[in-house]
Amino acid sequence: MTGGLFMTKLENLKKRKGIIKPSKRVGRGSSSGKGVRCGYGNKGAKARSGRSKAVGFEGGQTPLYKRIPKFKGFKSLNSSYKATITLKTLNEKFSSGDVVDINSLKEKGIISSTCRRFKVVNSGNLDKSLNNYITHIKFLNLDAVNYYFITKCYKNYIKNKKSFCTRQELQRNFVEGLGYSEQTVYLVGFKESICQYLDQCLVHTETIEWSNEKQKQIEKIAKYVFEDEVKAGQCYGLIELITELSDLPELGNNLYWTELLIADILTKGDNFKILGDRKNAYVPVSNPFGIESFEDLVCEILKREHNGAENLDLFCQKLVDLGIVKKRITHGMLGNSNKVRIIGQEIILRELTKDA
């Protein structure tokens, strides 16, 4: 207190009398001061403990949010319109050599200006070559586009390498870059003008400067090697013997001959058959032993050298040493097993079994 005045400070403040009320005594009967029912009324849900009223609850009748009509669905603010384009439309709107991308489609009025995605479906024919499809749109359905166009791009890429091309590089460019499926890219690798050069490596026939004359020459050499092997008591030829010869046709771009390349070229000529997963043994289509498949070859070897039956492990090791298979014979390699069967640890001619 100064000069008769009282200075109010925080430490001098006091609560007003009566502002603090005692808490309500609940569940104490008449002593609570609220009557016997303690202010909760007579029985019912509101008088029970644990009772909670849900938001929108109207006593059991249909609540308002269920009575009012609704509009189905909604429009997302982040949606992007996706258009569907047919091959017929591309064929009509574009000329040969044009580039098909999101901008060119909008310029020609094929899709709306708000469209950010589209796919091409295989409806109609595409009889012209269009330049590369978009590289930055991964959801374009490229596999529905004319298969001829996909094959052409694939072949041109390998041909322009002027050397062999790895499947890893092709997958990186066509699957990860352009959005084709792995299966499509893999299957195109077996086209007529593409040959297997090394394991997981492909080469174009124009890269090795292949011709019909060279094809006849390599087939003549393969037939000569086969006849020599027959004279030596074998029923098949080996491609590894062909690679050792010095009179093979010369390849372009300084490439050398490989066993896989010779096997693939002989197969594409339709005059020879490659037998076994090693891709080393071969026979001419017309041969004196009637061998047409790997099972026929196994059957002929069993007859000639093993009296029709042999231990499976020993026989597999023999074929590995001969360069016919990589590791061992499987049921899948024998096909329908019409001539040869694998029973336990033994491989035997079917005619020697009880159910022959």
Chart the SSEs and their pairings:
Blueprint: H1 64-67, E1 81-86, H2 87-93, H3 102-107, E2 115-121, H4 147-161, E3 165-166, H5 167-177, H6 182-188, E4 194-198, E5 201-204, H7 212-231, E6 237-238, H8 239-243, H9 259-268, E7 272-275, E8 281-284, H10 294-305, E9 309-311, H11 312-322, E10 340-343, E11 346-349
Parallel strand pairs: 1-2
Antiparallel strand pairs: 3-5, 4-5, 6-8, 7-8, 9-11, 10-11
Task: Describe the model.
With 356 residues, this protein is of the alpha+beta class. It has eleven helices and eleven strands. The protein folds into four domains: 81-144, Ribosomal Protein L15, Chain: K, domain 2; 148-204; 212-284; 294-352. The strands form four sheets. It has a three-stranded antiparallel sheet with strand order 3-5-4. The termini are far apart. The model is unreliable at 133-144 (pLDDT under 50). It has helices spanning 64-67, 87-93, 102-107, 147-161, 167-177, 182-188, 212-231, 239-243, 259-268, 294-305, 312-322; strands at 81-86, 115-121, 165-166, 194-198, 201-204, 237-238, 272-275, 281-284, 309-311, 340-343, 346-349.
Distance between the termini: 126 Å
Overall number of strands: 11
Largest sheet: 3 strands, antiparallel
Work out the helix count. 11
* Computed CA radius of gyration, to the nearest angstrom: 41 Å
What would you call the shape?
elongated
The proportion of residues in beta strands is: 5-15%
